[in-house]
Amino acid sequence: MDRSRPDPCPAVDDDALTAAKAELRSRHRAARRALDPAERARQAEAAAEHLWPWLAPRLAAARGAGRTPVVATVLPMASEPDTGPLRTRLIEAGARVLVPVIEPERRMSWTDWTPGVPVTRAGNAPVDEPTGPRHGPDALTDALLVLAPALAVDRSGMRMGQGGGYYDRFLADLPGSVPVVAHVFARELLPAGEVPFEPTDRPVDGVLTADGLTWLTAAERPAEAVHLPDAQ
To answer: What Enzyme Commission number(s) apply to this enzyme (predicted)?
Structure first.
């Protein structure tokens, strides 16, 4: 899968790009804060339901081949889409679930999540991290899926994160054979071109919301993928 940024890059100066990203982050953070907790829970359950028809056969195939399937996701911040329903399903299906640990120099390592695993608060982010052994990016070389957090994603695959650059650095070295899907709320899938980007930003392959699983290029789109109508 090609994770080079769309071409050509929008011709904007650094100050304008920074301002555009800041405005988009501010707008979507405010919308997330206003989202009702019951609606958050509904969207988490719906997203897991939409992902499962694509993911479950791949989990079964890996187990049938004698491998433990690996899926990466996150322990989300309070404002982010909840991954709890999906993580529970993955464990029940025999998957190994890896979640990120924030490291110095804006890098991430990975550690195993299981129900009840001891966690600690991250040193420089409002997220929890399991306290078990840490693994390098090689642990995800053959992952079935990386489910990445985002504030918004547009239909060219450009992802707006929280601004730390952790996932851009990680995705730059991730094998192209590993699908990367951003997990956002339903109204955070935007028309192509609405997420400003720079050369270090890396697009994702798909987007998961409560409305469906959307693959963003025909080359990576499985036949059974669920398609959404054009963004409203």
So the answer is: 6.3.3.2
Determine what percent of the chain falls in helix, strand and coil, rounding each to the nearest 5: 30, 20, 45
* Residue 225 domain-assigned (yes or no): no
Residue 198: give the domain boundaries. Answer: 37-220
| pLDDT at position 226 over 50 | no
Q: Angle at the Cα of 177 (from 174 to 183), degrees rounded to 5?
A: 70
DSSP H helices, the chain, are 14-33, 37-64, 84-92, 166-173
Cis ω on the peptide bond leading into residue 196 (within 30° of 0)?
Answer: no
pTM attached to this predicted model:
0.86
Pairing state between β 206-209 and 128-130: unpaired
Asked whether residue 16 is assigned to any structural domain, the reply reads no
Q: How does pLDDT run across 21-58, given as a tens digit for each residue?
A: 888 888 999 999 999 999 999 999 999 999 999 999 99
CA–CA dist 149, 81 (Å, integer): 8
Cα–Cα distance for residue pair 127/171, rounded to 1 Å:
20
For the domain that residue 55 is a member of, what is the CATH number?
3.40.50.10420
Closest CA to 196 of 147, 153, 148: 153
Q: 96 and 88 in contact (C-beta within 8 Å)?
A: no
Task: Decide: helix, strand or coil at residue 154.
Answer: strand
